[in-house]
Amino acid sequence: MRYDVAIVGAGPAGSTAAKVLSEKGLSTLLLEKATFPRDKPCGGGLQMRILHRFKYLNENNLIDSYSTAIQLHSPSLKHHILFQDDVPLQAMVLRKTFDEHLVTLATESGATLKCGNTVQTITVEKENIRIALSDGTSEESRMLIGADGTWSTVAKNIGMKPNCTHIGICVCAEYRMSKKTIHTLYGDQHQVHVHLQPHGLAGYGWVFPKKEHVNIGIAEFRQAINPATEKKNLQKHFDYYLQVLKKQKLLPTHLAKTATHGGVFPTCPL
Predict the structure, then answer these.
(1) Cα separations (Å) of 114 from 7, 12, 36, 136?
(2) Are 195 and 237 in contact (CB under 8 A)?
């Protein structure tokens, strides 16, 4: 079968495109190298304008919680700026369930999902695009959308070179906590905390409280450092950041260890 559109990458961008195109009557193939449910290194915070644009996110119970206050901390921790409102300033999601639900919405709209295969090659023909997959099969489409992240296989196959200097690198972890502990630490507002340049990091750290989880992470902007002379261990920075948060009483003193995850993200258009 030749599809109207093939989309590589079933993250929020890819699955949203698949949903919209399927609703418009286009035969749509959604390709994903992983299988669901799967997690991603991400804070899981959404700006409210996203919910205003995609109202079905609220209608389908995809939002885990909301925060009505955000506090910024200076590098020295001596200065703070608090933003608060009666309405939510940020929405929170759990990527493991959020992404899977978005994919379900896409398939319910008519998209075909194919998981567990990586794209090997892409051949652009006169009136056709041929996509060779790792299981030895191939798919055909009239159009192709690359929604496969910073190191996009689609971009590489069509000759686009990613800018390796304009990226950020993050390390994060999601900790499960009781609702009572969440309320004690972050209040009724589920207050978000953002630390600027913690411990000299060329970036920031975040604390995103959710319903029964809190996501902690740090991010470094690679264009702000000289990789040849400034080689930093981000895992050690993350461990230091946890200690800072405990001293500020933004985390329990005894925090159960959990796995950390790392990833990259673009800081400029691809």
Answers:
(1) 10, 16, 11, 14
(2) no
**How far apart are the C-alpha atoms of 62 and 101, rounded to whole Å?**
7
- Dihedral sign, Cα of residue 13, residue 11, residue 29, residue 266: positive
The number of domains in the chain is 2
Is residue 15 a contact partner of residue 114, using CB atoms and an 8 Å limit? no
Comparing C-alpha atoms, which of 268, 90, 265 is closest to residue 192? 90
Residues 71/77/78/84 CA torsion (nearest 10 deg): 0
Give alpha helix (H) positions in the chain. Answer: 12-23, 48-53, 56-59, 95-108, 153-157, 179-186, 234-247
**In a shared domain, residues 117 and 241:** no
Which bin fits 123, alpha (ψ -120 to 50), beta or left (φ > 0)? beta
User: Cα–chain-centroid distance for residue 213?
Assistant: 16
- pLDDT at position 268, please? 76
Q: pLDDT, tens digit, for every residue of 252-266?
A: 999 888 899 999 988
Q: Same domain for 171 and 124?
A: no
Here the CATH number for the domain that contains residue 194 is 3.50.50.60
Geometric angle at alpha carbon 188, from 182 and 189, rounded to 5°: 100
Nearest to 259 by CA among 168, 175, 170, 169: 175
Task: Determine the structural domain holding residue 144 and report its residue range.
Answer: 2-40+98-158
> What is the average pLDDT across 32-37?
95
* Mean pLDDT on 7-19: 98
